[in-house]
Design goal:
This protein is of the alpha+beta class and 112 residues long. It has a single domain, classed as Alpha-Beta Plaits. Helices cover 18% and strands 29% of the residues. It is built from 3 helices and 6 strands, in the order βββααββαβ. The longest helix is centred in the middle third of the chain and has 7 residues. The radius of gyration is 14 Å and the shape is globular.
Length: 112
């Protein structure tokens, strides 16, 4: 059980937004008590690595402790931006689902 991982969608939800070629991803745990765990496990580096096939620029994480949420701003991630991209999902709205597929160790409260 030591190497067991969970997917983020098991403990959090997400929403995506865009501005030009910049993707914005929120990450909000279902339980406020999991916020500290997400801070530890979902870093800028982990998100960039997980979405490396899409994000070619910098990933910046913003902590929102009063909301128990994280916000990731991902530069150069939408194929040039909505007006220049040939991607099917030019706005990147489905990328919140891609983020939630990221695997992390479960929080202590979930371990059995």
């Amino acid at each position: 059980m030591k190497n067991k991982k969970i997917k983020l969608y098991e403990i959090a939800h997400s929403r995506a937004g865009d501005k030009g070629n910049i993707l914005n991803l929120s990450l909000i745990p279902y339980q406020d008590s999991h916020y500290a765990w997400l801070l530890q496990e979902v870093t800028e580096e982990n998100v960039k690595q997980h979405l490396a096939h899409l994000i070619t620029g910098k990933v910046t994480r913003y902590k929102l402790p009063n909301l128990h949420a994280l916000n990731f701003v991902c530069d150069s991630s939408l194929g040039g931006g909505v007006t220049t991209s040939l991607r099917i999902d030019a706005h990147g709205k489905s990328l919140s689902s891609a983020l939630l597929e990221m695997e992390i160790p479960p929080p202590i409260t979930m371990k059995k």
